[in-house]
Design a protein that fits this description.
It is built from 6 helices and 3 strands. The protein has helices at about 15-45, 50-60, 65-70, 80-90, 110-130, 140-155; strands at about 65, 95-100, 105-110. The longest helix is centred in the N-terminal third of the chain and has 28 residues, at about 15-45. The chain is globular, with a radius of gyration of 19 Å.
């Protein structure tokens, strides 16, 4: 258990303590697992975790995605994401163009090289998710966490 006193939060009302401790636990777990996933990918000499996540989001959207939609799914500023996409384009992993039905929107698409790089890194990433997350939880625990996250996301997006 993470105690709020250990992080210097002492003015939190007592009824919020469980929520604060849960939130701190989510952040700590995310940080530790993310560092391990990044290290696993770094060992392969392929994609960074940030690049993998961007390419995976584009692939999950059918191979192309509006830049604005991509921005809503990652923790990069708009200028930071634009610079990252520019580097990925220079590396031949994505292409940028104008959306066919909205000339103002930028459409980012995976290239053949991007699909190949993503495929090569996917087994390392999925193995890490299995090792650091799934293997430590029962099916019921995984489903419960998934349900809570879906509920919170629906309320935030609704």
């Amino acid at each position: 258990m993470i105690r709020s006193e250990s992080i210097g939060v002492t003015s939190c009302p007592e009824e919020l303590q469980p929520a604060l401790e849960t939130w701190q636990g989510i952040n700590l777990l995310y940080s530790r697992i993310t560092r391990r996933l990044a290290a696993d990918l770094d060992k392969t000499g392929g994609l960074s975790l940030a690049t993998y996540e961007i390419l995976a989001l584009i692939a999950d959207a059918g191979g192309q995605l509006r830049l604005k939609e991509l921005q809503g799914s990652i923790l990069l500023s708009q200028p930071g994401l634009s610079r990252k996409i520019e580097r990925l384009e220079q590396d031949g992993l994505v292409s940028r163009g104008t959306h066919p039905s909205d000339g103002r929107a930028v459409l980012v698409a995976l290239t053949v090289d991007g699909r190949i790089a993503l495929g090569a890194a996917a087994h390392v990433h999925v193995a890490g998710i299995d090792r650091y997350f799934r293997a430590n939880l029962s099916v019921e625990e995984t489903q419960a966490i998934k349900g809570v996250f879906q509920k919170l996301l629906a309320r935030l997006d609704g």
